[in-house]
Design goal:
The structure holds 2 protein chains of 2 kinds. By secondary structure, chain A is of the alpha/beta class. Helix content of chain A is 26%, strand content 19%. Chain A has helices spanning 4-9, 49-57, 92-101, 139-153; strands at residues 37-45, 69-71, 80-85, 107-112, 129-134. In chain A, strand 3 (80-85), helix 3 (92-101) and strand 4 (107-112) form a beta-alpha-beta unit. Chain A starts with a helix and ends with a helix. By secondary structure, chain B is an alpha+beta fold. Chain B has a single domain (102-414), classed as Orthogonal Bundle (Cytochrome-c3 Hydrogenase, chain B). Chain B has 14 helices and 12 strands. Chain B has helices at 41-46, 102-106, 111-118, 126-141, 147-175, 179-200, 220-245, 248-254, 262-267, 273-276, 305-327, 380-390, 399-406, 410-414, and strands at 2-10, 13-20, 23-28, 50-51, 62-66, 78-83, 88-94, 209-210, 213-214, 347-355, 358-367, 370-377. In chain B, the strands form 4 sheets. Chain B has a 4-stranded antiparallel beta sheet with strand order 4-7-6-5. In chain B, strand 10 (347-355) and strand 11 (358-367) form a beta hairpin. In chain B, helix 3 (111-118) packs antiparallel against helix 4 (126-141) and helix 5 (147-175) packs antiparallel against helix 13. The longest helix of chain B has 29 residues, at 147-175. Chain B is globular. Classes of the chains: A alpha/beta, B alpha+beta. At the A-B interface, helix 1, strand 1, helix 2 and helix 3 of A face helix 5 and helix 6 of B.
Chain lengths: 155, 415
Amino acid sequence: MKWWPLYGLKKKWTERRTYESPVAVGRIPGSRFRRSLFVYVIDVGSSNALNFEIDALEAPQYNIHRFGIYMTDSPRHADVLLILGRPVKAMISPLRETIDQIPRPFGIIILDDCTDNPVGLNDTELLNVIAEVKGVPDPSQLLGMLLECLRVNGK
Amino acid sequence: MNILIGVLQKEENEYLVVLKEGKACLVASESETTGKEYLNYQILKEHNLLIKGEPVSGYGVFRFRYGPVTSGLREAGSFSLYTYGEKILHTTIDLNWKHRQMEQSMTGQKPDDAVKLSEKVCSNFAVSHSVACSLALENALGIRANTLVRNWRTLLMEAERVYNHLHVIYKLASAAAQKVLASHLGALFEESLRINKALSGSRYLMGINQINHINNLPALDTIRKTIKDYQGIIFQFEKLYKHSLSNPNFLDRLHHAGMLSREQASSLGLSRPSLRACGLEDNLNGATGEHLIALPVVTQQEGDALARMETRAEELVNSCQYLIDHLKVSDIWEGYNVADMAVKPEGEGLGISHSPSGAVGYYVVIKNNRVSYLRMFTPSYPGMHAVSEALKDQVFTDFPFVYDSFGVHFTDAAC
């Protein structure tokens, strides 16, 4: 059997291209995310397309680590919270608890995939929202948004 | 074999939705004994969002809650694992965190709007939900979909199967810390979503299927490119899969993890990979009544996470080959692709499709061209019961192999 790492080196998947953000990304007061951005993802009622897009964003075509972008396993290590979906009633409290755990300064990006769907709560009055997208952005748009966040908040 | 996938109330009478040799039918529950032959009857009748909610107790037994906010389980849902520190004794699954009341949202909608909403029940099963919903609505409205529509629905369902199966195997490889394999599979997963986008304009094949109508039929050049792309997926996947099967580190993690017996699988009303991995056939491949030849039913014997992965891998290759063979001749399919036709203003109908993880069923009643009653039966609901069963006596490190191998989703189960 061929050793897996050697197998992996044969193909270069990473793409060299530019990534555009579909929306303007706001500045987080007091932030200085120059070299890296740690992102925590929370699903509060998405239809699952966004969960799949986050998995796709971690595919080697995008190779997000080369830009210093990492998905973190804990909100306590996060710079940015990515909220997937429009919150259902049961998830409001866990969402607020998660936000309380994030160290300051931090930003929130809301991805709302339920635009034509009369489910979930519309107004959760969250602070520090730096971007909000209606619909399901593809991974290149998600990456564009995170890169824009680094650019805006790294100054 | 007969599989009970749902129980519904209609005008104060109870009806069972049963798959008989892959075909869906409504069986009236006329006597007290009806339904008792199906062991999952009570589960489906109650349709409790707290699965196996009875706690267990004993010396040193404690409850460990996993979710709804944890990186190991990205979807909003939670497991309560009862353990004394090693073996999982019992698992309770709470679906309330993802309950979006989709049935209520779809009630009162126009038929076309209901089909659109059905795609949002679980986006990675968008085609399966949309096809089952539109079939139910067509049956209610007295419409027989034309050949072109039925054939394209079949192809779109296979395209959905390809990316979902790739996703499940990618998750299993990630959980087993097979970084190189997982990265390659992740890349193929992204490629398959890009193929969907090129073919239909949507990465999740949304907005294409309607009542007796297919939107955005692809041009011939696009179809030729798609065929080449699927050939590439088969070539790369088979090479990777063969390589992974020679890796004992990977196989040992999946072997004997989350085993289900044939009796358990059939009593829970499972279908497609979860049932077939136990050596049982559901004859579900021809369930949508399409004109195209049905795919062979792939089975394995062991009933563990490895068998479920092997079933999915074989189905994935079959689906890609099926797409290649049929896309080549798709330009000669005939169909009057007309949205408006004379329909009944009222009626009731049942529709069934086969998603990557099992049977999806819809029952609808239409009055005054609006959906007045709707029930949906999703594969993830019995799948979650199966996860709970399969986790019994496992250690926590086997949790991701058990959960991921069933390919179930909270959004689909809670709907």
